[in-house]
Design goal:
eight-stranded mixed beta sheet; 271 residues; alpha/beta; homotrimer; 11 helices; globular; UDP-N-acetylmuramoyl-L-alanine:D-glutamate ligase
Chain lengths: 271, 271, 271
């Protein structure tokens, strides 16, 4: 798929030239790496959550990213203000449903946030399947029940596809293979490295990077796929320089800053 | 003490095979390194503090770790919900009394949290002595007064032993030499490296790692001693690769991921 | 200006010998790097914000640093308690007006915090110009309007000088060239490295380091200029060892720990 790799690389260059302001309401663990990943790759991150200033801030941001990682009632209220502002202003926002499926509180938070119509939902396979159950249960007027023991890739892909079609958004289920779909189109990307699962909040930071691409490309599917491509290739390249999760994180941030469109073209693996 | 080193290494392998879920309510400074240390060593960390979901979350966690570092009334309330849930469910929890003795507010928080019966209290020598004073003052119906000017090791050891016996828990006072006791048994471990005092939140992350061992070993004293052993040996090995606190932190996370039972057996220093 | 470099190096040594306790109320992104920068350079950082304990804590701190990065009403209330305590006790405090000028909420927060008379305000050029507008608008009974499109250095310098004179404090506008002034004296320092703009919260951490110097030198202008000198030279030296923003951050923390008075004397560039 040479066209896609070329388009992803071009979008990386556009994003860097634009240096979009990405507003993040994210969890306390991800604050540092998410801001540093965005800065390194060439975007301008802002961590702003106060309801008093969020509508004003959303107005001049390129995109909004909401992550429910270290959730609390106060932060959830802030997320609603931000997401509803973004929706009202026609700005794209991405939802990272960290831990969806783990508790009733978290499921309720996801269900409520979905009302503000995210452009993108990005999670791991089990989180995406949980969001899918939450939406189906919400339709049925109840709470989701049952936890998938396997979350086999194909199951997650079907859930992602149906979820994207139902909500009219893009859904990305990422892991060893990243799957992205808008319900009609889909793509599997297979870069990255196993060590990425041993560094905390790299999924969160990826959603942040997706936000940077959403800010510069109207086609949400293309923007998300490009972000996944760049992030995965950078991870694969960084892993070659790393002795473990500590040095990987350092090499990865370096690589997000140095990765080029040529690197993406040379290394992208579509599965 | 070859038996202990062997047991500690075996417990490390058991912990990695089990990959226990450790719930952490920790301070904002420690969030990143505590999660990354737990992930690197092979556990599954979760930073969850909302009272709305904590009881549900505690139920499927292997252990709970509470750290009062960047305390506030809202977080303290969350800690009470979590610790009381853990106590009610018979789950072990570890208390990291950061800054105990510094202010009346902090001392009151420690006194109140102790009612939920932690399995382990881990702090530096002066924090452990402060907790000891808090417990004694609480018995006498007053506030602790006087600050130890010296915190000589032997003084801290006596305080730790008495505290452990009185509360029926394990107490670890860590530093250049780590002292761990359950009131009857005790042990001194002397690995680690001076640079560890120049990296923030490594004590907090250690309490997190203790949580991972508590999740897989019923003998709290043995679990804690094993965690201290592995952490100290990893620190000593990482220091050999580091040029300062920045590179130490990176090397340490790498080493937590790569340290083996053999490393522990070969290097453990019992003082 | 050999005298200044020598004085800055001497102050670094004094600070390390004193190991001042610096209380920080800072944003969630900066928590980690600000604490680690302070620890590395030789100070003793504490991140404490609870109104219940802040007045007690301020009393034995060497200095207080307040950063409005991830602002919320609760944290703003805590900042007021801390800053007013510091002011009442005659302790110096430094304000980092992150994002000043971005929203009305943020501008209002800055205006209100200024009532507690910071000894130092440190920000980038556009933040310092925003604070200047906030103060002028406050005098005129209104809200600032207009955003400077250019923030040319000379414009920022004039704003800083007028602000310092009006408030009776020191103002530092940092960037490729750092400008520091107390309204009468001023200095331009030109060390550092471009990569520093690609690592998040290094400005926040710098304000923290300024706090460490304020704790040991009564002349706020001299203290701030020395902190800027040491930080800039450390950054320049670290950049020589770095392949990107990830490895720079690691090398920078190492260098903050190892930088000597001789390094400052040999490399300081006054512009």
């Amino acid at each position: 798929m040479p066209d896609f790799a070329g388009a992803a690389g071009a979008l990386l260059e556009t994003m860097r030239a634009t240096r979009p302001l990405v507003q993040n309401i994210t969890n306390f663990v991800a604050m540092d790496i998410q801001a540093n990943a965005l800065l390194a790759i060439g975007a301008s991150p802002a961590m702003v959550h106060a309801p008093e200033e969020t509508p004003e801030f959303v107005a001049f941001s390129g995109a909004l990213v909401i992550n429910i990682g270290t959730l609390s009632s106060q932060w959830l209220a802030a997320m609603h203000v931000a997401a509803s502002s973004a929706h009202a202003m026609g700005k794209r926002w991405a939802l990272d449903p960290v831990g969806a499926g783990a508790t009733a509180y978290r499921d309720g938070a996801v269900a409520a946030l979905l009302a503000h119509r995210p452009a993108l939902i990005r999670g791991n396979a089990s989180e995406i399947m949980a969001v899918s159950r939450i939406v189906r249960a919400s339709d049925a007027g109840g709470r989701p029940n049952g936890v998938d023991s396997v979350n086999a890739t194909s199951e997650a892909e079907n859930a992602a596809r149906a979820l994207a079609a139902k909500l009219g958004c893009v859904v990305a289920a990422t892991g060893a293979v990243d799957f992205v779909t808008d319900g009609a189109r889909d793509m599997r990307l297979a870069n990255g490295a196993p060590v990425m699962e041993r560094v905390t909040a790299l999924g969160c930071a990826l959603t942040g990077v997706c936000g940077a691409f959403l800010a510069v490309e109207k086609d949400v599917f293309a923007a998300t796929a490009a972000a996944l491509a760049v992030y995965g290739v950078a991870g694969e390249m960084a892993a070659a320089d790393a002795a473990g999760p500590g040095s990987f994180r350092v090499a990865f941030v370096d690589r997000l800053a140095s990765i080029t469109a040529q690197d993406v073209a040379a290394r992208l693996t579509i599965a």
